[in-house]
Amino acid sequence: MRIDAWLVVAEDCAPESLLEAARRLGGVVSAVVVGTSDLARRVARTADRVEWFPTTPEIPAEAWSIAVADLLATEGARVTLAGNGPTSRTVLGAVAARLRAPLLAPVVDVSATREGVVATRLVYGGIAVEHDEAAGPACLVVEGSTPRSAETDDVLGEVHGPADVHGPVEVHRVEATPLAISCSVNAPPDRIERDLASADRVIGVGRGLGDPAFLTDVERLAEALGAQVACSRPVAEDLGWLPRDRYLGVSGRRIAPRLYLMLGISGEIQHMIGVRDAGLIVAVNSDVRAPVVSGADITVVGDLHAVVPALLRQLTTSSRKEPQPCVASS
User: Where does the Electron transfer flavoprotein alpha/beta-subunit N-terminal domain start and stop, copy by copy (predicted)?
Assistant: First the structure.
């Protein structure tokens, strides 16, 4: 069974994830790109057709939501895939409403059947999967389609498409009228770096931190380790110590660093779902009965207010030591 698919590609998604999923359906892959001309040209290297809605500082991607929905309704889109970033989900939501289609998220796999498509998605906070079959139009949010780092972002050539045979397809700029809306962004403090998705090392802080003033020491530790700073949901939503896009877990960000250092986080499953793909999880917690004790690879049971300064001293001392010559033994 072959099913044609449409993609909604915005700046907050990694197009290769969508293209890989769409190619598994075996049909024609068309893309609606809501973004810059550079993004449209990149997608044109592997999609069979590209319809482009240009964005500018005055015209954000969300302003094209209704126009994109109208286009896909006219095209009779059967399966539409989008990334899991906020802009992509906003546009896809408009498409789902226009098509009267179910919106399934987060989808980790999709396949074609005689009746339609089967979407495999995470449920119960990611501890189980569910297979949903849709015979009519369906809109799918693809898990793991957040942007990659600059070093790994330009990998669309790995996804096979028409460009392998005859070069990129033509990008068609859609003539339409955007909604008269504007988006404002509240920039976080300069101390907070933005790229959690590609970080090799991440430090997560919880309510056990006790005092937001201690974030200064945490940030010094992050700088020494070359790490990003994240947090549990209460730290962002209840206490407001860090921006909301910094919290990890079922309803927050999901990361896969090589090292995740947890400071004062109890380790409930809602949080651990967001970090379960980390290579090594090290936790510091004063409660020997906390769930994180069994959930982490290494647990230091102790006062983080003593452990963090000790780590800082050790890292500082190590960085100042003169390299010792290597003497071979006879």
Answer: 16-144
Domain boundaries, the chain: 3-146+169-173, 196-318
How many Cβ atoms sit within 10 Å of the Cβ of residue 147? 17
The verdict on whether omega for the bond into residue 189 sits within 30 degrees of 0, i.e. cis, is: no
Q: How far apart are the first and last CA of the chain?
A: 69
The edge-to-edge listing of strands for the beta sheet with 128-134 is 128-134, 117-123, 103-112, 138-142, 79-82, 3-10, 26-35, 49-54, 171-173
Q: What is the C-alpha separation between 214 and 224, in angstroms, rounded?
A: 16
Q: What is the pTM of this model?
A: 0.65
State the average pLDDT over residues 18-41.
93
> Could you tell me if 182 and 68 are in contact, meaning their C-beta atoms sit under 8 angstroms apart?
no
CATH number of 3-146+169-173: 3.40.50.620
Closest CA to 277 of 144, 146, 141, 120: 144
On whether the 196-318 domain is CATH 3.30.70.100, my answer is no
Question: In this predicted model, what pLDDT tens digit does every residue of 142-190 receive, in sequence order?
Answer: 876 555 444 334 433 344 444 444 457 899 999 999 998 876 666 554 4
Distance of CA 243 to the CA centre of its chain: 16
- Element containing residue 295 per DSSP (H, E): helix 292-295
Confirm whether 3-146+169-173 and 196-318 share one CATH topology.
yes
